[in-house]
Amino acid sequence: MEKIVLDGVPLTLDEDGNVQVYERISSILTDQNRVIASVAVDGVEMSPEAFVSLEGGTSVEFVSMDVRELVVQTLGTAGEYVVNVRKGALSVADMLESEKVEQAMNLSVQVMEGMDWLLTAVGRCTSLLGCTPDEGIFGDFQDARQKVAEKMESVVDSFEAGKFFAPAFVFREEIPPLIDVVQNTIAALEGQVTGRRQ
Questions:
Q1: What is the pLDDT of residues 118-160, one digit of tens each?
Q2: Residue from 78, 44, 36 nearest 60 by CA
Q3: Distance (Å, rounded) from C-alpha 30 to C-alpha 99?
Q4: Which helix (H) or strand (E) holds 65?
Q5: Phi, psi of 197 (to 5 degrees)
Q6: Under DSSP, is residue 69 helix (H, G, I), strand (E, B) or coil?
Q7: Alpha carbons 142 and 58: distance in angstroms, whole number
Q8: pLDDT at 197 over 60
Q9: 59-66/3-6 β-pairing
Q10: Nearest-CA neighbor of 114 among 136, 83, 85?
Q11: pLDDT tens, 143-154?
């Protein structure tokens, strides 16, 4: 890249290649407790993955944000999203119990994707805030994360075997308590980032 800009300030870097430039910018920001919020090449915003694999372009602009700001935004979204995931899980159970199998299977895919996003987002927030599994609620979160993976695998296996009672039970009885753990973790993280204890 001929021109590299970080938060409106042109930079001169020794790094050559997009992967190295991205890693260097990330390193600079880590020292400032910031992260990359967006990347634009020649005015076109793109994902970090697209940037590192891109060939060509003359200028790249990185915009950063404070880690805590990112965590606050992510937790806000996660807090709203967790409610929808819970409703979705219960709706899947209702549909399976009403023998609306095709609808239930379609919605279950969305619920599983939603759970995956939620667990990944909350997991990243715990990492960004330096939380460790031995800190009570964060250990509970890691356990819940593992159990969700196991439950989702059992649901897929049951669907493939043409069994629908077991997934209905999982979505109604086993997933909601795990969602509660995620919701409690979100509240604890929000408390940590704002300075209040949960």
A1: 999 999 999 888 887 777 788 899 999 999 999 999 999 999 9
A2: 44
A3: 52
A4: strand 59-66
A5: -95, 140
A6: helix
A7: 43
A8: no
A9: parallel
A10: 85
A11: 999 999 999 999
Rounded to 5°, the CA angle 132-183-133 comes to 10
pLDDT, tens digit (0-9, with 9 covering 90-100), for 49-94: 999 999 888 999 999 999 999 999 999 999 999 999 999 999 999 9
CATH number for the region 69-194 comes to 1.20.120
Alpha-carbon gap, residue 189 to 197, rounded angstroms? 9
**Would the pLDDT of 101 be above 60?**
yes
How far apart are alpha carbons 66 and 44 in whole angstroms? 23
* Residues 189 and 71: beta-carbon distance below 8 Å: yes
Structural domain spans, the chain: 3-66, 69-194
What global pTM score does this model have? 0.80
- As separate numbers, helices (DSSP H) first and strands (DSSP E) second, the chain gives 7, 5
CA angle 193, 146, 183 (to 5 degrees): 35
Q: Looking at domain 3-66, which of 3.30.300, 1.25.40, 3.10.20, 3.40.50 is its CATH number?
A: 3.10.20
CA-wise closest residue to 144 among 126, 168, 163: 126
Beta carbons within 10 angstroms of residue 177's beta carbon: 10
Round to whole Å and give the CA distance between 1 and 123.
34
Of 33, 37, 11, residue with least CA distance to 24: 11
